[in-house]
Design a protein that fits this description.
Layout (H helix, E strand, L loop, with lengths): L1 H14 L2 H7 L8 H22 L5 H4 L1 H13 L7 H4 L1 H12 L11 H8 L1 H13 L1 H6 L6 H14 L12 H9 L1 H26 L4 H26 L16
Length: about 260
């Protein structure tokens, strides 16, 4: 399991362009000690996610405390002062709340979709923040606002890609839950509309910022096109999928 997790994390780091960030500042991505520390932090976050995805009844104060202890320990190893741990983790806490909302029958589809995906990319935002702390030039070249639409579309891509796999867990996959609640045609329409919204806002920022945003803007546009194609493909496959998902065992979507 550890090797599979490490492989998954490396794929995530590459997909979110961390190696290129190191290239920008002339640092060796593969051998830099901060990367090992960040991978341990991501593992700690994954263990928290795994508990949320495999347990319906959860007492946050009791059941999640040990996972947060490990996340904080990993943050310290990444050079983050203990005094600011809560600030660095505030987006993760918010997304954890969204996951726990499922136990109250409060679905992602009842929330603003852009805000939902903003918080869903909390782990990547945290890791990039730590990298920028280490290399301030990265933040000067590409501030957090430059990554907003890239993070949104790559998170949407993850949900569309993992829609079948997430059916076996208690997962806040927006696309899957929209499909269960409103049917695949409506879910595809909603998600495609959101992708078009991301692409439009990204194009507007690209025109406004021009050269400084070119790299992030072009990557985002490419991911929008790829995700639309994947959405069409997986929506067709979902129409033929009659399996009962894990989350349906706990919630009645057809009531």
């Amino acid at each position: 399991m550890r090797k599979e997790l490490e492989k998954k994390i490396e794929e995530l780091f590459v997909y979110r362009r961390f190696p290129q960030l190191f290239d920008l500042v002339g640092e060796n991505y593969k051998n830099h000690p901060i990367i090992s520390a960040l991978k341990e932090l991501q593992i700690a976050i994954y263990f928290l996610d795994h508990h949320l995805e495999t347990n319906w009844t959860i007492d946050p104060e009791k059941d999640l405390k040990k996972y947060w202890k490990e996340i904080y320990r990993s943050l310290t190893n990444c050079g983050v002062d203990q005094k600011v741990h809560d600030d660095y983790c505030k987006l993760i806490y918010r997304y954890q709340k969204h996951e726990l909302y499922l136990r109250q029958n409060k679905l992602p589809t009842s929330l603003n979709i852009e805000h939902y995906y903003y918080f869903k990319s909390c782990d990547v935002k945290l890791l990039r923040r730590i990298i920028s702390d280490k290399f301030p030039m990265i933040k000067r070249l590409h501030p957090p606002a430059d990554w907003r639409y890239f993070d949104l579309i790559t998170e949407v891509n993850d949900d569309v890609e993992d829609v079948f796999e997430d059916g076996f867990t208690i997962n806040g996959n927006y696309f899957l839950i929209d499909h269960l609640k409103n049917g695949i045609d409506k879910a595809q329409e909603n998600m495609n509309g959101f992708i078009e919204q991301i692409a439009r806002k990204n194009s507007e920022r690209l025109k406004l910022k021009k050269g400084s945003y070119k790299w992030c803007g072009e990557m985002t546009q490419t991911e929008c096109i790829k995700t639309q194609k994947l959405l069409k493909k997986n929506s067709s496959l979902l129409k033929k999928d009659t399996r009962t998902t894990e989350i349906e065992r706990h919630l009645n979507f057809r009531a």
